[in-house]
Each structure stands twice: as structure tokens, then as C-alpha cells.
Amino acid sequence: MSNKVLKAYIWAKSVLIVLFLLFLFAIALFMVSLRPYDIIQAANAQRVRGQAIAKDALILQNSANANQWPQAISELQDIAPLWQREHASLLAFHSSNLQIAMVPVNADYIAINQALMVILAHKAPADSVQVAIILQHVPDYGVEMNQVVTLMLQDLDGIQQQIFIYCVIVYACLVALAIADPIAMIWHVRRTKKIIV
């Protein structure tokens, strides 16, 4: 192996190593940008908020719980902005699977949210029609949010399997380079000795 070939080999090896490391870095950035755990956490939080809305609406409907009305109204006033903001953030994710899963969720959300706004506008006692709307839609909303979580977990599993395959390929290439390097150096030293002799 001539010196020119050796220099070319060293440069090629260095460039390949840098490219492989950049590829691994890009995979890590890709995983962070997907944010599936954010979606899962948001969906679970929304399901819990839906249940809290139903509980407080029931309290506000029942005149026997009049002493609990101020607390229920306060809870609903605290929940409402978080409920709306989290729903908007779920709709903003650019995952086609999530967009499809959010269609039925959105229909139930709109019904619950409109009833919630009416209840908050009129305070207590809550209108029984609005409470009935909430009670009708919250169970479906919870089931649909569980489906969103399941879908995100399936997507995450598929993505992790693909990334694992890519990482194995990259690591195999790095190992091949690590093995090829001493072989090439030994061959170069032997060849250089023969030329000198």
C-alpha cells in the first residue's frame, strides 16, 4: 500500500466514522422530535380531566350538594383552560395516525366543552341537559383517549424497532472499520518492509 493509498484510506475511514456518528445523532434527534411520550401523557391527562368535569358537573346538578358547589365551580374553572389548551396541542401534532384518531375524540370534546362553558357561565345549580351531555360523552371520550395512547405506543414500538435495526447496521459498520484498520496497517507495514528490504 503506497503512502497515497494509506492517506486516502485514513481519510475515508475518518469520514465514514464521522458520518456514522452523525447518523446516530440524527436518530436521537428524530426520537426527541417525535415526542410520543408527550402525546401519551397529554391523552392520559385529558382522560382524567374529562372524569373530573363529569364529577363536578354532577355535584353542581344536585342541590343536596350545595355546600360543595363553590369547590366544584373552582375546580371546573381551573380545569377548563388546561383542558382546552391540551386538546389544542393534541390537534397540533403532525402525526397522520394521531390526526385520524383525534376525529372521534374531537367530536366528544366539542360536546363536553360546550356543555362545560354553559355550566361555568350559569354556575350552580347546573342545567341537567348540560350535565347529561357531559355524562353521555365523557365515557366515550375516555375510551377514545385510551385508543390514542394505544396507537401512540404501537407507533413508538414500530419506530423503536426500525431505529434498532439502523443502529445495529451502523454499529456493525463501525466494528468492521475497527477490524479493518489493524488489518490494513499490518498489511501496509509488511509491504513497506518488503520494499525496504
Shape: rod-shaped
Strand-residue fraction? under 5%
Query: What is the string of helix and strand elements?
Result: HHHHH
Low-confidence stretches are none
Biggest sheet record = none
- Derived from helix and strand composition plus strand pairing, the structural class reads mainly alpha
Overall number of structural domains: 1
Distance between the termini: 15 Å
Question: What value does the Rg take, in angstroms?
Answer: 30 Å
Mean pLDDT, nearest integer?
A: 84
Number of helices: 5
Could you tell me the number of beta strands?
A: 0
Please estimate the helix content.
over 70%
Helix and strand layout, with pairings?
Blueprint: H1 3-34, H2 36-61, H3 69-92, H4 96-122, H5 128-196
Helix pairs in contact: 1-5, 2-3, 2-5, 3-4, 4-5
Task: Provide a quick synopsis of the model.
The protein has 197 residues and is mainly α. The chain is 90% helix and 0% strand.
How would you describe the overall organization of this protein?
By secondary structure, the chain is mainly alpha-helical. It has one domain (3-196). It contains five helices and no strands. The protein has helices spanning 3-34, 36-61, 69-92, 96-122, 128-196. Helix 2 (36-61) runs antiparallel to helix 5, helix 3 (69-92) runs antiparallel to helix 4 and helix 4 packs antiparallel against helix 5 (128-196). The two termini are 15 Å apart. The model has no long low-confidence stretch (mean pLDDT 84).
Q: Keywords for this structure?
A:
single chain; 197 residues; mainly alpha
